[in-house]
């Protein structure tokens, strides 16, 4: 055999191109915000997870700079060796206080928080029930754990119950995993029903509040707060990189759970601690989330304004059900979605096409920010009207 063992990569890339699934990066040349410079052109930004507009906030920057000046740029080791600083503990206390849990532990990203937590909680003898629309980090955490995985149809409580009836007794532990706000759709998981089922079948419940923290619930504590489930036994994952404007992830819950994760999660034990700058910025963000509820109110006012305009002016638009600042318009295929994304960009609107394999059906995904001006939302709707979506 003298065939090139890497030749298949070029062929696979060609297949990706043919399916209109090819992706590449686009450069932002300004600070994060409601308006950004994208590849040299000013656009209104409907593509960011920076829901509260904190990623460009002076206060986060100042605290990050101060942390660098005091502690340097790198944390130099894992938390259990040389990487731990008092700042990490302060941030973990702020997370636990927001979530009203006994404790929390921060990871270097939300992705790593899911991988580490899921693999520490279940193994070969165990069962995972997973919503089919779950984020990649939940899906890959499940695979890495070695547990048996059963996917249930999106938010389908009846099928979930049936699967548990059929399978629960064959396994030692069982873990139900779900996004709380579904990241590519914008709808919410049925948390109270999931909690009831978890109790009935003696399952642990892990929810990923990546898009909910800072955004949903009266104090921004997430869907657990929104559904009135605060204080119930739930494993709450989240990220510091969306509404909190920094980088990192966390798990919050009771102190035994967190203690266990600190002793068992490989993606926490064997990776370098969160940098001082990221830690300090996230800590500043939690303070702002608590002290400035008006940011969250403005975000929701903007969401309502956009929904109202769509109802009035764009009756044909196929909007996926949403209870969050994520709004998606379904399109017939990947090529149409790419054209729509390009058209919007030419019209000064940054709203990306999301295609398979990220999602089952192609769509344009809009994320609202607290810092969008009403005129900017008007411009989005005008562009959509123009494109006749
Ligand atoms: C973004 C996201 C993550 C990953 O968080 P990072 O901190 O960016 O790694 C995990 N879960 C969900 C649902 C997400 O949307």
Automatic annotation (TrEMBL):
Keyword Transferase: yes
Cofactor(s) the protein needs: pyridoxal 5'-phosphate
Similarity field: Belongs to the class-II pyridoxal-phosphate-dependent aminotransferase family. BioF subfamily.
Subunit structure: Homodimer.
Reported function: Catalyzes the decarboxylative condensation of pimeloyl-[acyl-carrier protein] and L-alanine to produce 8-amino-7-oxononanoate (AON), [acyl-carrier protein], and carbon dioxide.
Listed EC numbers: 2.3.1.47
Annotated ranges, domain Aminotransferase class I/classII large: 42-384
Name the record gives this protein: 8-amino-7-ketopelargonate synthase
Keywords in alphabetical order: Biotin biosynthesis, Pyridoxal phosphate, Transferase
InterPro entries in alphabetical order: Aminotrans_II_pyridoxalP_BS, Aminotransferase_I/II_large, AON_synthase_class-II, AONS_Archaea/Proteobacteria, PyrdxlP-dep_Trfase, PyrdxlP-dep_Trfase_major, PyrdxlP-dep_Trfase_small
Chemical reaction(s) catalysed: 6-carboxyhexanoyl-[ACP] + L-alanine + H(+) = (8S)-8-amino-7-oxononanoate + holo-[ACP] + CO2
Lineage, opening ranks: Bacteria, Bacillati, Cyanobacteriota, Cyanophyceae, Nostocales
PROSITE patterns (UniProt xref): AA_TRANSFER_CLASS_2
Pfam family, one: Aminotran_1_2
Broad class of enzyme this protein falls into: transferase
Biochemical pathway: Cofactor biosynthesis; biotin biosynthesis
Residue positions, PTM N6-(pyridoxal phosphate)lysine: 242
GO terms of molecular function: 8-amino-7-oxononanoate synthase activity; pyridoxal phosphate binding
Top-level taxon: Bacteria
Alphabetical GO biological process terms: biotin biosynthetic process
